[in-house]
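Hi there,

I know you've been waiting on this one. I reran it after we fixed the sequence typo, so this is the corrected version. Both the input and the resulting structure follow.
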Amino acid sequence: MTTPMNGYRMLAVLGAALAFAACEKNAVQVLPNDPLLSARIKFFNFGVSAPGVNFYADATKMTAIQSGTGSEATTGVAYGGVGNGGAYAQLAPGSHALTGRIAAATDKDLAIATVNATIADDKLYSFYMSGIYNTTTKTSDGFVVEDPIPTTIDYSTAYVRFVNAISNASPLTLFATIRNAVDTTKIDTISVNAAVAYKSAGGFTTLTGGIYNLFARYTDSTTNKVSRTAVTFLGGRVYTIGARGDITVATGGNAPALDNTANR
């Protein structure tokens, strides 16, 4: 038989246990405060006829697309697309195997492009899956370039550079044209970069903010190999113009094209 005193003691113990449980349930959570990784990288699928891919750094998935049901979509980053909506992803400095892996259910996670790269502390990079996809070997080309964003930004001008991701093209020179602000009957033509070879990037050139027509040519030619009209460059922004496609194709989705992606 339980005495009144023992009953009080049991109630006290039970109350203490409930209070302890309540404290545990409502305890202040300690959020992770690890520092952000210092390097940054973005991913481009410029492999002509390549399937949609997810990009990886070693075994870590860096890009993926969510389906309407909340699961991972099997589309991945399609040809001509940029992973993570064009945003940079964090990456630890060091040596990494960067891969583009098939996102579809068939051949799921098969690596079709691999680039081994050393990523430096506090720098930005872009990984391009490029070339023409080989349907027999299920492989594509790839390369990595550094994105040396200017440290001092003049907000009255835009900063533009050119990357050549067309594997069967000779070195290309990118030009930009804009209507002369003083004499509107004239068109000013500006060389954005000297000739840029495949898997290479030119330096950043300053352009007055405005709407430009772009075209790229071989150094010994006056013929446009690829062009794009009405490209807006805003002052204080940094842009990369990437050439992709098959230089031997005149029309259609695999024809040469110029991609405009903001770095900043």
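Quick highlight: The first helix runs from residue 4 to 25.

Best,
R. S.
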